[in-house]
């Protein structure tokens, strides 16, 4: 048995390969798709399309034709979780020989894989509690955290940040680093508060599901506070980084954040003033995933890339 294990591990990569990088991208995209598919489950009223867990029905692991479109949508969402688990496992296996040399990659991949079963269990609790809105919010927030971890994994796999970032890269100046932290925290807080808006809104996932006993108008007003902070901070970062070279990674990251938050804010106001149509809810979920990724990229590039410039003669 030990010889067999050695033979298998001997064939695994000893350096970061294009396959590892592609798997990291697949994980990031997959986590974003999972968030959007969860939104589809909710706005189509398919949250109890599979009325039990871990099976779809008491007799069947999968959905049946008699369950109609709601059963199909809910089961497809569950299946995506298994697909992401497979990607996470493949990443961990591919990184096995690098577990000491590239601890950053290995433990990020381990965290992804370990969190996916936990996410599945929370999804099961969501179904068994009849789509309790607080459990639904937790279910979403775990997915949001996995987007963050996946973005960090992509940056490390491509050598953009961390110990393998270019030795010639210059670290961002203190003010830019501080503003990047503010922008990232505001992004994460906006997403967290957004779950309260959703939990008190009309799309519960099923007509029989409870809603949060919150004032929708007040919750929305609270939700937009970190959004305003984020917009102001992102615009200020772009101004500060305006004179950086066109291909500067931090400058590009700030531009991406401005674009994503303006897009997300536009969709948010559009859906608020048009009665929260289902199609806009789905687009808003996509925007949330995008904002999480670009905010994480910004703070990662600002804090974990490059070295401080040492003054001559010091």
The major pleated sheet works out as:
none
**Beta-strand content estimate:** under 5%
Number of helices: 9
State the shape: flat
Mean pLDDT: 89
Query: How many β-strands, per DSSP?
Result: 0
Order of secondary-structure elements: HHHHHHHHH
| Low confidence ranges | none
Rg measurement, Å: 21 Å
State the end-to-end CA separation: 58 Å
Please estimate the helix content.
Answer: 55-70%
Question: What structural category characterises the helix and strand content?
Answer: mainly alpha
Helices and strands, with pairings:
Layout: H1 2-9, H2 18-43, H3 68-94, H4 103-128, H5 133-157, H6 174-199, H7 216-240, H8 249-273, H9 278-303
Would you write up a description of this structure?
There is one protein chain. With 314 residues, the protein is an all-alpha fold. It has helices at 2-9, 18-43, 68-94, 103-128, 133-157, 174-199, 216-240, 249-273, 278-303. The longest helix is centred in the N-terminal third of the chain and has 27 residues, at 68-94. It is flat, with a radius of gyration of 21 Å.
Short account of what is shown:
By secondary structure, the protein is an all-alpha fold.
Brief descriptors of the model:
314 residues, mainly alpha, 0% strand
